[in-house]
Predict the 3D structure of the following.
Amino acid sequence: MFGFDLGIDLGTSSLVIAMPGRGIVLNEPSYIAYMEDSEKMLYAGKRAYFLQGREPQGVRVAQPLKDGVIGSYRLTEKMLSFFLGKVIGKTIFRPRVVACVPSVTTDVEKRTIVSVLINAGARSVCLIEEPLAAAFGSNTDPLQPGGIFVIDVGGGTTDLAVVSGGSMAQTETIKIAGTDFDEEIVKYMRTRFGMNVGIRMAEDIKKNVGCAVPRVERVVMTAKGSDVKTGLPREEEVNDLDIYDCLFPLLETIREKAVAMFERTSPQLVADISRSGVILAGGGALMYGMDKMFSEALGVEAHVADEAQECVAKGTGIALIKMNVLDGYGYRFKTKEDVRIR
């Protein structure tokens, strides 16, 4: 395989890789299991994800990508090298990569992301904002002059942006997203029911009974964990209203930020968005009622993009095809020499 390019969604929870002409070629949890003493990688992806909370002595599981940026350079490099190897196999040819970053990212953070991708096996790297990639992935053309409002609810961050003519008219990154929902459910189960649950159980609760608006019909599931006082196994029934109350403060913050962005957007762009609607992308957008919550808050129809969880990665693949156009908007590939890495 040679002369190929890759688009990568560097998510806190999932790492998704797309290839032009082939679509999504890899979708793995952004987890790595490694030896504590030597930082030698044992597993990455699904196997490391399911090992979390079950680690044997001397082994740790980590998410090296946090809030859309590099939390641990060495661990991120090892994880990316492993995933790139799974996609491209053994070859002397290094791919060009388009990767997405939160819409509010510092120059230092961008240089670090480019550096780690090149050390992991990329020939050159171009970074684009997640909302721009999400717009491409939702089969909308963000290069047109009309306004598009994109809300990408990922694992580590929620990105809000009004895109017009290939640039960000308004943008904001909120460090509240899917992982924070899981952690809030863990806290809630402890304080409300006196019960400890693992992060995987909290994620199951969020997916099964979580909601951004109250459901029409009650939904109940059995949560399993341990009693706070005795440490013995315990089960408790939780319903959608419990989790709605639990997540309401976090969702209210996101909703208020979206309303504030809409209020400072120009009237002409607001008129464009009123016709096109609001695009919701990311795994967090799949939680029940997210579209209704934003529709009610903004007074504009909000709809969840097809394959929302892979929408951003699909968009990076489309961006690769349009690089001749994006170059005119300042999106360019950077090499090892551009970021001065060893």
Remarks:
- The first helix runs from residue 46 to 51.
- The radius of gyration is 21 Å.
- Residues 5-133+312-339 form a domain with the Nucleotidyltransferase; domain 5 fold (CATH 3.30.420.40).
- The chain has a mean pLDDT of 91.
